[in-house]
Amino acid sequence: MTDAVTIDRAAATRIAPDPIARLPITLTINGERRELQVEPWTSLLDLLRDGLDLTGTKKGCDHGQCGACTVLINGKRINACLKLAVSVDGAEITTIEGLGSPGALHPLQAAFIEHDAFQCGYCTPGQICSGVGLIAEGRAKTREEVREQMSGNLCRCGAYTNIADAVLAVMEKDA
Amino acid sequence: MIRFDYARPTEVAEAVRAGAGEHVAYLAGGTNLVDLMKENVARPLEVVDINRLPLDRIEELDGGGLRLGALATNADTAYDERVQARYPLLSSAILAGASAQLRNAATNGGNLNQRTRCYYFYDTDTPCNKRVPGQGCGAIGGVTRVHAILGTSDQCIATHPSDMCVALAALKAQVQVTGPAGDRTIAFEDYHRLPGDEPWRDNTLKAGELVTAIDLPAENFATHHTYLKLRDRLSYAFALVSVAAALRIEDGRIAEARIALGGVAHKPWRRAEAEEAIRNEPPGDKAFDTAARALLAGAKGQGDNDFKIELARRAIVRALGQAAAGTPQSHTDKRIA
Lengths: 175, 337
Known about the structure:
By secondary structure, chain A is an alpha+beta fold. Chain A contains seven helices and five strands; from the N terminus they run H-E-E-H-E-E-E-H-H-H-H-H. In chain B, about 30% of the residues lie in helices and about 20% in strands.
């Protein structure tokens, strides 16, 4: 544990690790195994967007407060902005690009269109990944439970009612 | 984001050796540390990633308790069948916090060690004694809606942000720690500390020490408990005031009471004298108000947060009522029972 005194002293003499070390990691992203070299301070979100051009995953706040960067890591919904890419070495990552394709939408993607569950669309990939995670968890049974368990995804257009409708529709189909 | 060296040990002893250096931070779920490194508030030179350590299990303890591995996630802990059945107060408190995504990443050890969400601590353009000792406190005399009303010092009025820890305080959990000098056990009430004149120290961990587990005692208050959380929006927000209340009721009288508060102090706030004051009393608003006043004696607002004193008093009375009735607060139906 580093306390503030030592952190402050460290900051005064900080030198970047030299040479800037890239670390080898392996990720299975949307079913494809990738051997990658990453700097230790690269977030999974930045790796996906800037390193791999998977820009479907959105950067909203970059602080774990909005949910736009939600992806599935080993099947669990997690904020990609707060994960260092190196720390998920070996994991299976599913992004919005891996859930469906224009010709074969994931059932939740289709439900978002059917229920008009977005306006600007910026939060939508995170909403859909989060909803897929929620359905897989299988703990939400009611609209109120869906709303509570989707609270980690903000929608500033305010499409919450229709987002809950879409998630509930897929849950009912699966049931 | 700052730059740092990175190590990923697979054995606890190896992690402790790596953590013994200067300016080292242990990384678990990352939900707080990564954010603080982006904000230039946490500036370790080396990050020791402990996610490969074998500390993610939840196991039975001799005598009826439960050991929560430091690296078990908050979600896996809250939804564990044993935790849900035997420690519903803890499960409820965890599920009242953060979001599903964050609970899937955040770990039990990390929950204990998360830093305050005081805006001045995060804002490096303002002074903060917690961030830079001796710099001054931007919060005192500033915007203080979220700040502490109990146990403050003239150097720091920050609160501890956890919900989980409020329940752990009420349950009298124990924190298992290992470090350069070996293993030790810390009583939960001694784990976090008040700011005093060293507000940069959130807890009593020594340099290089690592939390390995949290032990729950056999006494679980599974019948009479509640976690009541009051906040500015109904989900995904830190507590303004929260109450973990647990009662053991025998022959119509309070045989034992535990009350811990979140959102009001630099640590989960308990006072043995408040709990003792209502022992052997019949459960009811008279006893609950007595406990509330004892728990809040000496509370002092900072201006914007003056409302917390009366809010806390009412929340304690309401929470003890919920616990006594065996009707814990739902975290789906947010109407206060």
